[in-house]
Amino acid sequence: MSKTAVILLSGGLDSSTTLYHALAQGYDCRCLVFDYGQKHKKEISAAKALARQAGCPSVCVAIRLPWKASALLDKNIPVPQNRVLTGKDIPVTYVPGRNIIFLSFAASFAEAISAGAIFIGANAVDYSGYPDCRPEFIRAYQAMLGRGLKAFVQGKIIKVKTPLIHLSKAQIVKLAVKLKVPLHLTWSCYNGGKRPCGVCDSCRLRAQGFAEAKVKDLA
Questions:
Q1: Alpha-carbon radius of gyration of the chain
Q2: Are strands 159-161 and 58-62 parallel, antiparallel or unpaired?
Q3: What is the CB-side half-sphere exposure of residue 84 using CA atoms within 13 A?
Q4: Cβ distance 120 to 18 under 8 Å?
Q5: Which of 50, 76, 117, 156 has the fewest CB atoms in 10 Å of its CB?
């Protein structure tokens, strides 16, 4: 497989830092963006803008999860505010099987273009408690790919890479600054207002990371 990589790009801090990390590693990056029925489209716009800024082609895939079952998809389920962030409870912002779905699209894309890697900004340190952000999930998914893709049968490897998985949010912010990620273009908020709400899990984890890194957030 080549030095081409598929990057799962949501437009947030983690995925954007992952993109710039892959670029720094010399990968020819193709960004994969999802419109999966989110309540707002700001993160999609952010992802496309970040891909353009990085000079990387992007593909936006539109899918629908009609069963919803998440505060990010269902207008009748409010996004939690000022929740206690323990990382132990799975919040209502969890989207059932989202990373399984996204990685499966990425694997198909990677095999189709003979890419050797898939990058995902999964993080298991400062996160909301999603089970599909843990190292054991990534290891299991990698093993599954080895059983289900033509590429592996032919002796080619598509590696799922998670460069941020063991980093704190503060460490991710510092890495983003080092890599010159255009942080002002990123969008992390679960809500789609003109400005980040500041009280959802994602906003609070982001704010905590910037504060601990002693970096001003210009987004």
A1: 17
A2: unpaired
A3: 3
A4: yes
A5: 76
Q: Which amino acid is at 27?
A: Y
* pTM of this structure: 0.95
DSSP per position, the chain? -EEEEEEE--SSHHHHHHHHHHHHTT-EEEEEEEE---S--HHHHHHHHHHHHHT--EEEEE---TT--STTT-TTSPPP-S----SSS--TTPPTTHHHHHHHHHHHHHHHTTEEEEE----SSSS---GGGSHHHHHHHHHHHHHH-HHHHTT---EEE-TTTT--HHHHHHHHHHTT--GGG----SS-SSS--S-SHHHHHHHHHHHHHT-----
Backbone angles phi, psi at 59, to 5 degrees: -125, 130
pLDDT at position 129: 80
Q: What is the pLDDT of residues 15-64, one digit of tens each?
A: 999 999 999 999 999 999 999 999 999 999 999 999 999 999 999 999 99
Q: What is the pLDDT of residues 119-170, one digit of tens each?
A: 999 998 877 788 999 999 999 999 999 999 999 889 999 999 999 999 999 9
Instruction: Please report the domains of the chain, with CATH numbers, ordered by start residue.
Output: 2-213 (3.40.50.620)
